[in-house]
Design goal:
mainly alpha; 2% strand; single chain; 10 helices
């Protein structure tokens, strides 16, 4: 169900992860992504995933949210796994049938890519789960502030990114309502071939686009009524400040990164 999709949602809390500086969380999340792509062993990926599970526990977010964040990406994960199974070659075939030949190297690469995508989505989801859209806007704008010297529209870009992220749950909820209304009118969206299912989506997409443009117009009107004219001269309710917990988190992440690099140096570790 669409209501199970949690991308872009924020879960308020007072945990140590919630209270971290959003700038530090964004930088550490980027470092986490680099760490995932640097890791070349299953051990390294498992260590990174265990660390992220610990972060979820520290943030008091239920672990079942991890499964919900992965649910929309399952088709991509399966597609990636199938491609690696079919196109990664090796020395000794593990399975052969007609024109399909599977090698142990393909199986290993498929499992590795699935774990990497899983860790990637889980790590990125934690950032939005524990950071409000307003704090994300401030963090993005502060981190990109040096670009203001070359007249880059930093504030406008940060605002657009945050608004887009904020409205993902709203659009998902709106889509679920439209689908339920169409099914109540007798619409069949699950049977038939690909073309028939694609045609069945038209009664959903049209009202969804209309509703999206209507919401965008209402948001623009509301911002104009509040005299919003960009970031020039605007003040902030909360000032972003780093705390000792941010430095501790950075040290832990750097140590974890160093450990994964060390694991890459030992081919004996799978």
């Amino acid at each position: 169900m669409l209501k199970d999709i949690t991308i872009g949602q924020f879960f308020p809390g007072n945990s140590v992860v919630h209270r971290m500086d959003p700038r530090a969380k964004m930088l550490l999340d980027i470092l986490y992504l680099v760490m995932l792509f640097t890791s070349q062993t299953f051990t390294g990926l498992l260590v990174a995933m265990l660390f992220m599970v610990f972060c979820y526990l520290a943030a008091n977010i239920r672990l079942k949210m991890i499964l919900k964040s992965i649910k929309p990406i399952l088709p991509l994960m399966l597609f990636t796994a199938v491609l690696n199974l079919l196109f990664i070659k090796g020395d000794t075939p593990l399975f052969a049938w007609w024109i399909i030949t599977v090698y142990p190297e393909g199986v290993r690469t498929s499992l590795f890519m699935i774990l990497r995508i899983f860790a990637l989505i889980v790590g990125m989801s934690l950032l939005t789960y524990t950071t409000s859209p307003i704090m994300l806007t401030d963090a993005i704008e502060r981190l990109m502030s040096p670009l203001k010297k070359i007249r880059f529209p930093v504030h406008e870009l940060a605002m657009m990114m945050t608004i887009a992220l904020r409205f993902i749950p709203t659009l998902i909820e709106e889509t679920d309502k439209i689908m339920s209304a169409q099914k109540a009118r007798g619409a069949d969206m699950e049977s038939g071939g690909v073309l028939k299912r694609a045609k069945a989506l038209i009664p959903i997409l049209i009202p969804l686009f209309v509703s999206s443009f209507k919401r965008a117009n209402e948001l623009a009107t509301a911002m104009e009524c509040r005299c919003y004219h960009g970031g020039d001269g605007r003040t902030r309710l909360k000032t972003l400040k780093t705390a000792p917990r941010d430095y501790v988190a950075a040290v832990i992440m750097l140590a974890l990164f160093a450990g994964i690099i060390v694991l890459n140096c030992y081919p004996a570790i799978p």
